[in-house]
Every structure is written in structure tokens, then in C-alpha cells.
Design a protein that fits this description.
The complex is a heterodimer. By secondary structure, chain A is mainly beta. Chain A contains no helices and twelve strands. In chain A, the strands form three sheets. In chain A, strands 2, 5, 6, 10, 11 and 12 form a six-stranded mixed beta sheet that branches. Chain B is mostly beta strands. Chain B contains no helices and eleven strands. Chain B has strands at residues 4-7, 10-13, 19-25, 31-38, 42-51, 54-57, 65-66, 76-78, 87-94, 106-107, 111-115. In chain B, the strands form two sheets. In chain B, strands 2, 4, 5, 6, 9, 10 and 11 form a seven-stranded mixed beta sheet that branches. A four-stranded antiparallel beta sheet of chain B has the order 1-3-8-7, with no helix packed on it. The N and C termini of chain B lie far apart (36 Å). Classes of the chains: A mainly beta, B mainly beta. The A-B interface holds A 30, 32, 34, 41-46, 49, 51, 89, 93, 95, 97-102, 104-107 and B 4, 30-31, 33, 40-45, 48, 50, 90, 92, 94, 96-98, 100-105, 107-110.
């Protein structure tokens, strides 16, 4: 079956530090890959996505590259801010009769201190 | 404003007392889904619906029911809640995809349910 594994948190960083959150996946077929972010007390928002191998998704200074050879989609940001404190979910999507069902990782909490 | 709404946002109830969590979207999306979020387990899909009167089980459907009588609404029903259903619940919706193009799922704000 399909699964997503991401590093456990919390990840604690100081402002302006470099961020990496690792994500690997197992899937049949050719999934699309996503990072969702959940700010405290809110629902999930799509942060970025990549739909095929070697694609790079980017948004708000975050980047992730779809690596088919290593089945990975690691999230990176060069300089984190306090406002980036949130829970980050890696997810994959396989098309199912025209609809994209999501399989999520367990989430990684990021805490950024001033 | 395009959005997914859920009610109530917070609910404390007792074992065995039937409850319904409502979900509504104003984006004319075909696909709707319910997830539960638990510490250390991430989000797991409970049920989903591809269109009106079409529903199917997700990964953890036991103890839940859903209905899709109208396109915009997708209520989650707990006929006899138990403490192990204490969780944070999210509703999501998305339009139908074409080919391999992924359409973003839009999430509601969540409903925190406590079953005593």
C-alpha cells in the first residue's frame, strides 16, 4: 500500500536557521507529492506540491524536490521565522477514478524561537 | 469567500449519545472527505464522497456514518460515541481532477471532540 514517513519532531530552531524536514514515501504507480502546513488552531493548508519526478515545489521560501530515485520529498527553507512555527505534513496523492486521495505522514512540529 | 465550514468547533459529550458534526462547502466541489487527527498518528481518512449519494469507507470507518444528500453538505454521524473517538476531526473538499492534475483539497477549521 501507500505510505509516507517523515521525521519525528519537534524540530526546534532559532530564527534564521536552516530547516530540513525529511520525508520518504512508498507508493504504487506515480504519485503526486505535497507538503501541508497546520498553524495552531487552524486546518491544513497546501504549502507546495510536485507532480512528477525532479519537479521542485516552492512557496513562501520553502522548497521540496520530488526525488524518484530515493523516493523522497524533503522540505527545506534557508532562513526560518518565528511565524513558521507550525505542524508540517508530507502527503502523497494517487488518482482514484478522477479524485485524488491523500495519504499523510504523521506530521512534524516546528518550533522557531526568536 | 470560498471555504469549508464545520460545526461545532468544540464538543464534549458522553458515551453513547448520538451526535452529528456538520460540514459544508461553498465551492461546488464534487469530492468531500472526513479525517481524524490523533497525536503520533497524523491524519487518517474516515469516509469520503465522490458526489451526491456516493460515499465510501476510508482507512478508519468503524463507528462512523456519513451521508451526502446535497453537494455542499457532508455530515459525520457518530451513532454511539465512545472515548476512543475523542479526536480532532477535519472535513475537506476538492473538485474533480482531470488526468493526473491534482486539485488541492481545502480543509475546514476542525472540530475537537471529547467523549467522556
Amino acid at each position: 500500500g501507500n505510505s509516507v514517513t517523515q521525521m519525528e519532531g519537534p524540530v526546534t530552531l532559532s530564527e534564521e536557521a536552516f530547516l530540513t524536514i525529511n520525508c520518504t514515501y512508498t507508493a504504487t504507480g506515480y504519485p503526486s507529492l505535497f507538503w501541508y502546513v497546520q498553524y495552531p488552531g487552524e486546518g491544513l493548508q497546501l504549502l507546495l506540491k510536485a507532480t512528477k519526478a525532479d519537479d521542485k515545489g516552492s512557496n513562501k521560501g520553502f522548497e521540496a524536490t520530488y526525488r524518484k530515485e530515493t523516493t523522497s520529498f524533503h522540505l527545506e527553507k534557508g532562513s526560518v521565522q518565528v511565524s513558521d512555527s507550525a505542524v508540517y505534513f508530507c502527503a502523497l496523492s494517487i488518482s482514484n477514478s478522477g479524485y485524488s486521495t491523500l495519504t499523510f505522514g504523521k506530521g512534524t512540529m516546528l518550533l522557531v524561537s526568536p | 469567500e470560498a471555504q469549508v465550514t464545520q460545526n461545532p468547533r468544540y464538543l464534549i459529550t458522553v458515551t453513547g449519545k448520538k451526535l452529528t458534526v456538520t460540514c459544508s462547502q461553498n465551492m461546488n466541489h464534487e469530492y468531500m472527505s472526513w479525517y481524524r487527527q490523533d497525536p503520533g498518528l497524523g491524519l487518517r481518512q474516515i469516509y469520503y464522497s465522490m458526489n451526491v449519494e456516493v460515499t465510501d469507507k476510508g482507512d478508519v470507518p468503524e463507528g462512523y456514518k456519513v451521508s451526502r444528500k446535497e453537494k455542499r453538505n457532508f455530515p459525520l454521524i457518530l451513532e454511539s460515541p465512545s472515548p476512543n473517538q475523542t479526536s480532532l476531526y477535519f472535513c475537506a473538499s476538492s473538485p474533480r481532477s482531470t488526468g493526473r492534475t491534482y486539485n488541492e483539497q481545502f480543509f475546514g477549521p476542525g472540530t475537537r471532540l471529547t467523549v467522556l
